[in-house]
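Q: what does this look like with iron/sulfur cluster bound?
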Amino acid sequence: MKLCIYTNAPELGNDIADVARIFYGQLDYAVYPLNEPAAGDAGLALRVSDEAAGQTRLVSATASGAVTGAEQAGYAEESDSLERKRVRKRTVKLAVYAILRRETGIQPPWGALTGIRPTRLIYQRMERGDTYEQALGWLRNSFDVTPEKLRLLKDIIQVQSTLPPPAHNQVELYVGIPFCVSRCAYCSFASGEIGSGKLVRPYVDALLYEIGRMKELLQEKDITVSTVYMGGGTPTSLPADEMGRLLEALRPLADGREFTVEAGRPDTIDREKLTLLRASGVTRISINPQTFHDETLERIGRRHTSAQTVKAYELARSLGFDDINMDLIAGLPGEDEGMFRESLDRISELKPDSLTVHSLAIKHASAMHLYNALLPDGRMTASMMSEADRAARALSLRPYYMYRQKYMAGALENVAYARAGAECVYNVRMMEETGHVLALGAGAISKRIAPSGGRIVRAPNVGNIEEYIRRVGEMCERKEALWNTDLNRSGEN
Ligand code: SF4
């Protein structure tokens, strides 16, 4: 659908379009001056004005085309300019939401929320003195979030409150392996097929160099590593000898810590690699079925079968892995609720220690748009997410973090569930942006969080694999500069 936005607040065009996407899914939009006459063929036209009205300002919004309706909202002018911008944006979005909600009759699960981290809003309110019940009440009243999602947030916050808080002199260490054995249709990660493997050795050499320099930095700054996460791509797509070199270098940093390796593709793991991971102190791995239907796996370009997933999982268990995560995706092309329930039944039999349920996000970068006609609608995906919630809780897995993405089916979310004690602390700190991250490898982004105010300063590595190999010294310098910055004084953001 095409959305035409006529407004005197053109800088809010994308925010207005984001609200429309809650109801209509993906859509393109164009912004025009407020008084321009409407084009006749508009699928949906929104006219939004924000005008001074005495001590307050008045937002007037009208919708025409696919739906018709009008809404008005007033808001007080704030003296603080940042707060003024925030309140103005929120009022405009809520006015547009109110029309579309009323005129379409659709109750979006997350109401008017368009951000990716609803938990952050709760924490912000709590920092200002709210109890979490008050913060949840504010979300319900201001953003129309459904009771089911409020309960999810409440449970997540309760579990997170039992996890160790990050310390200022610690970092979460991320190591990125941007290779995979083949490309899934929905993949939007910065990863390339491992292909002939000619880049693998130079890439691992570059990583070893970066690890060495970062060990010196950590020592100099008296910083310790709190958790280690090797992600990608699929790290286990590396040949065993290259994986071994890397794990050997990481061992002194990872020893005794939570150490996760994404072994997501079952067709990349075997006894030799799993034994190596175990012997190198890896505490947690992911083996990701995504679905237990082979025809869907084939359709989305994952070149493995569900039997391979089960075999890899059982092998990992037999080798002593006692913390295994599995990922499922709700809303895959060609799947309905019955098929998704069958995948959940298989999960219930296998009993992983954690389960991460994604609702399919269709990104422009992926080839998934080719399957649009086969995609289940938002209502069906929502019902799949509810089923997954029930199945996870029946396995005594509790929700412990969640996030949303743009282009997500049914404006839903991704939720991670874990048994008590199997929560991945690295993931929580990443999602909530509470821990400093020292990130190595192509495309990895290091972050430091300012002690007061939570301002985040970043140092990204280049994403292109060959560039990274060539410029690894410069990537180290970027991180050294980041950790030499006095965040209390720097105004950088
Ligand atoms: S397994 Fe993961 S990283 Fe590899 S192509 Fe599929 S989605 Fe991308």
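Residues 180, 183-184, 187, 189, 191, 232-234, 264-265 surround iron/sulfur cluster (CB under 6 Å). The CA atoms of residues 175 and 440 lie 5 Å apart.
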